[in-house]
Amino acid sequence: MKILAIETSCDETACAIVEDGHRVLADQVATQIEIHRKYGGVVPELASRNHVVDIVPVVEAALAEAGLGLADLDAIAVTRGPGLVGALLVGLQVAKSLAWAHDKPLIPVNHLAGHLHAVHLHRPEEPAPATPGYPHLALAVSGGHTALYRVEAPGGPVRLVANTRDDAAGEAFDKVARMLGLGYPGGPTVERLARGGDATAHRFTIPRFKDGALDFSFSGLKTAVLTVLEKRGGFPEGQEQADLLASFQQAAVDQLVDRVIQATEEQGIEDVVLAGGVACNGCLRQTLRDALAQRGRRLFVPPPRWCTDNAAMIAGVAFTQAPAHPGHDAADRRLNAVGTWSVTA
Ligand code: KG4
Ligand code: ZN
């Protein structure tokens, strides 16, 4: 079954074609990073306007890459939410029009379910990756979300184990980068500049909640970095900058790893998935992999191109939902976007 998916929930305009939920026949992403960089973050209206410009060429490029026409597809999938509503509406309207004009089922997909699915994707010329058993835990860490889930079955129920009580992990990387005058997006820059830094130069503590919840919190860490900067005055550079960034990165990673390890032990779960843009971070991948391996547990992480926003992960989820969408119907024609939509609902 070949599904074409469209993803426009934030600042990437993406279209992909995926066969049977895992073989990626086409994967196109037009990124708007350069457009938003000068504003220090994503400007919602600019994101919507640029999706309108990029969406048709991106869909055309995906069809050309796969060597397929619209008639060859079994269904059209689209990210319905969560995300920026104006941005979502662009992808949704194009997906609705394609599904209506070509009489294809329209499959609405939750963006976070996409991130959790990304670990199953591969190119046809690559071997299928090893995939996690069920139930497994999945840590979704991006610019908008930081949550730990328990995934019960393929395409099955997802339960929330822990959530952030303030900022998302990616947001913390982006805000700290901004405080140091390092531009947007912060994550990749922080990781690069932290190399060679001494992660023990600053001792930032891991937050714990009195009620014993495994929830995350990054606002204290952000304030701790700000306090260092205020005491010092001005932006640090060179080794001093590397030391501060390495200490921040280690504290953020240690908190994420601490929660995952505790949850695997409490729930007796063997396999863990790491997903979302922050899963590109090498320090997080390595620290989590080592901590799990020491306890005889396994980590599954998608390649970086499927950790950040993409449409292949959306097409992948849609395959698991396809039986519920046997044909194009009236509900498809009235589908709307949703800004907030829990993956556990
Ligand atoms: O999943 P994603 O592409 O978009 C959202 O759904 O948010 O994630 C983007 C986030 C940004 O906050 C970015 O700074 C962060 O992922 N990120 C990283 C790295 N690469 C991207 N954070 C830390 N280290 C990285 N290497
Ligand atoms: Zn995302």
CATH class of the largest domain: Alpha Beta
Q: What topology, given as strand order, has the largest sheet? A: 3-2-1-4-5
Radius of gyration: 20 Å
Distinct bound molecules: 5'-O-[(R)-(carboxyoxy)(hydroxy)phosphoryl]adenosine, zinc ion
**Main structural class:** alpha/beta
Set out the fold topology:
Layout: E1 2-7, E2 12-19, E3 23-31, H1 33-37, H2 44-66, E4 75-81, H3 85-101, E5 106-110, H4 111-117, E6 136-141, E7 146-151, E8 158-163, H5 169-179, H6 186-194, H7 219-232, H8 238-267, E9 271-275, H9 282-294, E10 298-300, H10 312-321, H11 330-333
Parallel strand pairs: 1-4, 4-5, 6-9, 9-10
Antiparallel strand pairs: 1-2, 2-3, 6-7, 7-8
Helix pairs in contact: 2-3, 4-10, 5-6, 5-7, 6-8, 8-9
The structure holds 5'-O-[(R)-(carboxyoxy)(hydroxy)phosphoryl]adenosine and zinc ion.
What does this 3D model show about the protein?
This protein has 345 residues and is of the alpha/beta class. It has 2 domains: 2-121 and 306-321, Nucleotidyltransferase, domain 5, CATH 3.30.420; 136-301, ATPase, nucleotide binding domain (Nucleotidyltransferase, domain 5, 2-Layer Sandwich), CATH 3.30.420. Helix content is 41%, strand content 18%. The protein has helices at residues 33-37, 44-66, 85-101, 111-117, 169-179, 186-194, 219-232, 238-267, 282-294, 312-321, 330-333, and strands spanning 2-7, 12-19, 23-31, 75-81, 106-110, 136-141, 146-151, 158-163, 271-275, 298-300. Helix 9 links the parallel strand 9 (271-275) and strand 10. The mean pLDDT is 96. The structure holds 5'-O-[(R)-(carboxyoxy)(hydroxy)phosphoryl]adenosine and zinc ion (ZN). The site of 5'-O-[(R)-(carboxyoxy)(hydroxy)phosphoryl]adenosine has 19 residues, from helix 5 and helix 6.
